[in-house]
Amino acid sequence: MIEVKNIQKLYQNGNVEVLALKNVSFKIDDGEFVAIMGPSGSGKSTLMHILGALDTPTSGSYFLDGRDVSTLSEYELANLRKEKIGFVFQSFNLLPRTTVLRNVALPLIYEKVPKQERNRRATEALLSTGLDESNFQHFSNQLSGGEMQRVAIARALVNNPSLILADEPTGNLDTKTGELVLGTFQQLNDKGHTIILITHEHDVAQHANRIIHIRDGMLVKDEII
């Protein structure tokens, strides 16, 4: 699914140059559950933006499903994100005075999917995360943190992406709730979804089957667990 070849990312601020990623290379197969782990400032967020087609490398190549993402235009990158990648963020990014079902269906509204079909797909995505159906007509700001994150996961799933990219998805949750959310990712992986989890926490990374360690912009360890 993913092949990263000698990725480098250089940021320039006036006369100051910062090399955020230094010749990073790895492959991720379909159906893997991988954690990318590193401390603050390690380059993992930069790598996440490249893997999510939110940014392009300064040099090197990034292939997703055989397509060289590093050569795409902004328009092509936007289409790739829409078709191939589901994002889950630490801050949930839900609309507060909007029902759970509509929050999940929003990407399909933009795609002009008919209402009955988008509600069916949103319901299916929500059920796959284990959220109780009694919550579907609640406003998202009436839910607990763990429930909101499940809604965010469902929204990431609604377009049936080939890749789910989760950026510190338990960062705003207590330990017990975080474990429940990580269990949801494990269940999705068991169903064949490819999951990439960005984290700085060792305990969170242990839920994956493989950990790629990033430090000072370099890949320092790649381990199967």
Mean pLDDT: 92
Along the chain, the helix and strand elements come as EEEHEEHEHHHEHEHEE
Helix share of residues? Answer: 25-40%
Low-confidence stretches: none
Terminal-residue CA separation: 20 Å
Rg of Cα set: 18 Å
Number of domains: 1
Beta content comes to: 25-35%
CATH architecture: 3-Layer(aba) Sandwich
Shape: globular
Query: How many strands in all?
Result: 10
Tell me the structural class.
alpha/beta
CATH topology: Rossmann fold
Q: How many strands, which pairing sense, and closed or not: the largest β-sheet?
A: 6 strands, mixed
What do these coordinates show?
The chain is of the alpha/beta class and 225 residues long. The protein has a single domain, classed as P-loop containing nucleotide triphosphate hydrolases (Rossmann fold), CATH 3.40.50. The chain has helices spanning 44-51, 74-84, 100-110, 115-128, 145-157, 175-190, 202-205, and strands at residues 2-13, 16-28, 33-37, 59-64, 67-68, 85-89, 163-167, 194-199, 210-215, 218-224. The strands form two sheets. It has a six-stranded mixed β-sheet with strand order 6-7-8-3-9-10, with helices on both faces. It has a four-stranded antiparallel β-sheet with strand order 2-1-4-5, with helices on one face. The longest helix is centred in the last third of the chain and has 16 residues, at 175-190. It is globular. The protein starts with a strand and ends with a strand.
